[in-house]
Fold these 3 entries.
Entry 1:
Amino acid sequence: MRFSTVVAALAAAPAVVSAAKGTVGFALGTKEADGSCKTQDDYEADFDAIKSASGATIVRGYAAADCNMTKAILPAAKAKGVKVVLGIWPDVEESFNNDLNAITAVAESYQDVIYGVTVGSETLYRGNFTGEELKAKIETVKSKLPTGMKVGTADSWNKFADGTADAIIGSVDMLMVNAFAFWQGASRDNATHVYLDDMYQAVTHIEKLAGGSDKIEIWNGETGWPTAVGTDYGAAEGGLDNAKSFFQNGFCALIDWGFNAFYFEAFDEPWKPASIGDNGKAADETTWGAMTADRKAKFALKC
Ligand SMILES: *[C@@H]1O[C@H](CO)[C@@H](O)[C@H](O)[C@H]1NC(C)=O
Ligand SMILES: *[C@@H]1O[C@H](CO)[C@@H](O)[C@H](O)[C@H]1NC(C)=O
Ligand SMILES: CC(=O)N[C@H]1CO[C@H](CO)[C@@H](O)[C@@H]1O
């Protein structure tokens, strides 16, 4: 779809756009730069930095029991007026149970701080579950949480667009659609186009199936761009200026059109080991932060 068509479609369809700007959030890791688990004080420092640089007051995590995240982050969030989307990692039974227990232990007392719960991150993309299997996990979680607490999942945009996620649509309150123009090898100049097109395809499919735009709360669950030079993927080139361009022209465009979105991620994570990317090359995942590990914004973060 042409960029102008996407923009026209977004503008013409109240289904996916509202007059108000969307909400900016950040994905947040559980570890300090040296790999130690964050404490409540560390999360409070995170929130101070995020709020002052971007104005954002919502973050999301991935595995509630990892590093005892839930215990440390919720009091910090309450103190700083921040909301948290907690995650359950359902891929293996042990983490599913640990994360779920960590949340149910505090769900009642922190109902005002927990924005919602995601069951799984890209499990369909990895082929770990079918839609039906994921649906069962989501419904189990929903049955254990206080009534009214939002439950959903996060997955790659194409798994929503191509129908892989169809089975879960009737069981979720909230969906996180991940879309990385970078991992699609988009050049800097085409990144915004690719990103908006991904979101458009996923959102239109979800809304069609759900029977309207008011049925499921949709967020862009992750997007981002690494700042290290040399971390290229096809025509997508890592670097500070390219990341800044993507944040300010791509991410903020989505926000301007009324979508809510989480930038991946708040801070660099230098402790992360190199992983092998989809192209078989070593992928450096340490520099995706909008801020450095010592919490300094790399570029202007207000949309
Ligand atoms: C989490 O806290 C418990 C005590 O409440 C402790 O035994 C455990 O080692 C902690 N786990 C991590 C990963 O920090
Ligand atoms: C830009 O992205 C769109 C959508 O993915 C694609 O169709 C188009 O070929 C790309 N253009 C360039 C110049 O790479
Ligand atoms: C249900 C299922 O397929 N679970 C698998 C998900 O992936 C992990 C590894 O990441 C396996 O250990 C699980 O068995």
Note: The beta strands are 24-27, 58-60, 83-88, 114-121, 150-156, 174-178, 217-222, 260-263, 275-276, 282-283.
Entry 2:
Amino acid sequence: MRDLPYNQVLVVGGGLAGLRAAIEAADRGVDVAVLSLVPPVRSHSGAAQGGVNGALANAEDGRDDTPERHAFDTVKGSDYLGDQDAIQIMADEAPARIIEMEHWGCPFSRTKDGKIAQRPFGGGGFPRTCYAADKTGHYMLHTLYEQAVKRRVKVYMEWASAYFVVDGRRVGGVVAFHLPTGQFEAFQADAVIMATGGYGRIYARSTNAIINTGYGMAMAYLAGAPLEDMEFVQFHPTTLLGNNILMTEGARGEGGLLFNAKGERFMERYAPTAKDLAPRDMVARAIQTEINEGRGFPGGYVNLDLRRLGKQKIMERLPGIRDICISFSGVDPITDPIPIQPGQHYSMGGIGTDVWGQSELPGLFAAGECACVSVHGANRLGGNSLLDTVLFGKRAGERAAQVVKGKPAPRNEKAAQAALERVRKAYAGLIAGTGKEDPNQIRDEMRESMFELVGIFRTQDKLVQAVRKLGELSERYRRVRACYDGKKFNWDLVRTFELGGQLLVAEVIAKGALARQESRGSHYRVDFPNRDDQSWLKHTLAHYSSQGPVLKYKPVTVAKWQPEARKY
Ligand SMILES: Cc1cc2nc3c(=O)[nH]c(=O)nc-3n(C[C@H](O)[C@H](O)[C@H](O)COP(=O)(O)OP(=O)(O)OC[C@H]3O[C@@H](n4cnc5c(N)ncnc54)[C@H](O)[C@@H]3O)c2cc1C
């Protein structure tokens, strides 16, 4: 029998979290490889615009900022669901991670005196968001990729991971499908770090890249790792009408304002102090309320007005936003307001981990948007996710390296071969079956149902309907047939396979939302409009079973800050 590929640590995903984890593992002297569906620099991290948070206190009007204040803003932003020990670690280590990126060559924008510039972001008490114009993710991703190349980190490119190699409960590698050739392979490892990003594409109207299917979360869930707090789905207030491309919060951070069809600055009514820079959950609900109550423009949108910034500032700070508006909407923000509506943006929940990225399964770590540490709780603050990726990515790489160093786990070739066979069979079944169901139809119905029924405003009725609809779609998925059977770059086949996992993740979101009878952060129940700390100050943990998710709960770590009413 030929030898299967083996690395001590295998990172699945080449975005910011995956690359940072790989760099750390390499620096700690273990043999590490990255396996990624797309070339690392094409990961969704590269689309991040607005910036990355850290209390550097560089801005003129932000000199008093401290990690303590960053931690408090994050706790409050999370609607007290974030674990305060994890949040404290994140706020304390943030400046070091950002300076490290700077020293590795990330070209951050500068203040007049040459320091890293910082702009205000929603829910932040100080200008704390470091940025590189409005292309921060792109620059950070290329910076980390250079560092990975410098360390000769092996990259398996254009492989779609499908299932883990498991030995009992221990994760010992992944089986993946090679897009360019249609081959399958079992990659063995002593530890696997999942860094597969968010599930945005389970929803219609998402700002996420098409590759953000959330399948990596489904893999962990199927293997027995619980998914945490999945009912908390972030809707970004400002996405471009019609195609939902993100208009960064940085646009409001630089002074852009929201107006309804009557020309009113409506945010003054919803958040009298923070106004347009209230946290995302509040601004998204406010915009949707304006639209629902007839104060939006026909077609369902309001305006984001940047004209008051002037040409020079727009060209300097928001050039990417301007390009996108002109190319995709025919609107030049220098002369016209931008039509926007809320859209799905970020997954607060994910594979549950401790502050070192360790999941409940031995050998399985997770970091970045696919993980839930939990630092974002019920609502993530803008700029905290890029930070989460590099900070907890580093920690996951460090701990995985410590765990595997000097003590290789017993390799189980039999388990690897069995997993390989299982994946081959599952893929073959999608082509060979006699089923008539079109995967694209099922996917579209899933996405529309999630946006309509498990969206910004939720009710018991809608959520029951969503669960029923998802059950029906899963039933139809059993009779699905991939549309194309070619060997080379068969994206249709990968996406049809992943759809099965997406339906599972969607079910976890809907059932978690149905169970949680309160409103907290992004999870807004019209029928339970208040936060209920007595019953619901706890994390949801969804465990896989063939009958659907089994929901359990665990306490939130509260340290310095007792829950208070959240006012802005
Ligand atoms: C448009 C946009 C703008 C944003 N702006 C900001 C911002 O300004 N500030 C901020 O803090 N946050 C921002 N965010 C959020 C932030 O960018 C993301 O949460 C973060 O970059 C996710 O990084 P990641 O490394 O976890 O995953 P990703 O960058 O999404 O990478 C996932 C990786 O996993 C791989 N992968 C996925 N599935 C598989 C599979 N089955 N097999 C193998 N590989 C797989 C992919 O190839 C990819 O390399 C933004 C998000 C979006 C969508």
Note: Residues 234-344 form a domain with the Flavocytochrome C3; Chain A, domain 1 fold (CATH 3.90.700.10).
Entry 3:
Amino acid sequence: MSMKYSEMVMAKLVTSILLLETMVTSGFRIGPDSLSVDYYVFSCAFVEPIVRNIVNEALQNDPKLAAGLIRMHFHDCFIQGCDGSILIDSTKDNTAEKDSPGNLSLRGYEVIDRIKEELEAQCPGVVSCADIVAMAARDAVFFAGGPSYDIPKGRKDGTRSKIEDTINLPFPTFNASELIRVFGQRGFTPREIVALSGAHTLGVARCASFKNRLSPADPTLDSEFATSLSKTCSAGDQAEQPFDATEDIFDNLYFEALTRNNGLLTSDQTLYSHAETKNFVDAYAFNQYLFFFDFQQAMVKMGLLDVKQGSNGQVRANCRKVN
Ligand code: HEM
Ligand SMILES: *[C@@H]1O[C@H](CO)[C@@H](O)[C@H](O)[C@H]1NC(C)=O
Ligand SMILES: CC(=O)N[C@H]1CO[C@H](CO)[C@@H](O)[C@@H]1O
């Protein structure tokens, strides 16, 4: 789909206004500590190209890292807010979020380390790990073929990372009502849940995450697809299955799969069973541009969850440990 220049300018303008609106409705105020798209313009002018180049290089070596980086941002934000807590390593006295079983399959930590190292060399002590995760996820979306968009920056890093907090992540066995309840507690609408779930256009799940649908047989699972999932699972709980036909490409095939009962997790297919979410699945399956548009807005909003500003947080020198 090609757009005229004037349409592109218009779309850019609209997304800028919506970004401002998202920030205002999320309770952000203008001040020295407030988040902004230009937060590092004087303190670390080249932060964006530095992050983008390292993400690009990493994805060229391993396209699967795009999925890892996007999922990392989600897990970071949903537990304790977007504060880089997902990056902290366990110590003798503390088992961190990243060591919880459900979250072990996260990947891309080395990419964040590399970005941090480069940024510490260029502008020491300035760019938070939470912002690095947010920017890396945003750039991963773009390099995988998704939309390009600006995000506000200025998040500070947290100091708490505890395995027990990860109980707050949604389970893959959740039905739409449960998703609407837990995401609703964080201020997300059903439409935003569907848009965010579209991140599953990238990557894979392990058999352990979807075998609940095989026995007893889930009636909302296409029978041919069920056979192929059983085959995957014959290799064990760790065997991987792509969410859609193009696991490294950010497109709308995930939604198209849901319309054919080819969704992978219970929490995916359920979006096509519930009155409040089904129409959005159809709309995104039909119109990829609409999906991209809604996805970027929902990602900006997710990136503002319980953000620490100013002296409420720190800028970690090493993303793996608190200062
Ligand atoms: C709606 C609730 C959600 C549930 C229940 C859920 C659950 C899961 C599960 C179980 C996996 C597979 C883990 C494994 O078996 O290794 C997964 C993978 C993934 N999730 Fe979600 N997720 C949800 C929402 C999101 C959101 C909001 C995002 C990002 C915006 C996201 C991004 C991803 C990505 C990219 C992968 C693939 C990871 C990879 O291949 O490395 N998910 N998710
Ligand atoms: C969704 O799950 C909850 C909790 O297990 C259950 O009470 C509810 O009946 C389910 N809703 C539907 C529509 O299946
Ligand atoms: C989604 C998921 O599997 N979350 C798990 C993360 O780890 C905690 C701690 O072990 C589990 O309780 C969650 O179920």
Note: The radius of gyration is 19 Å.
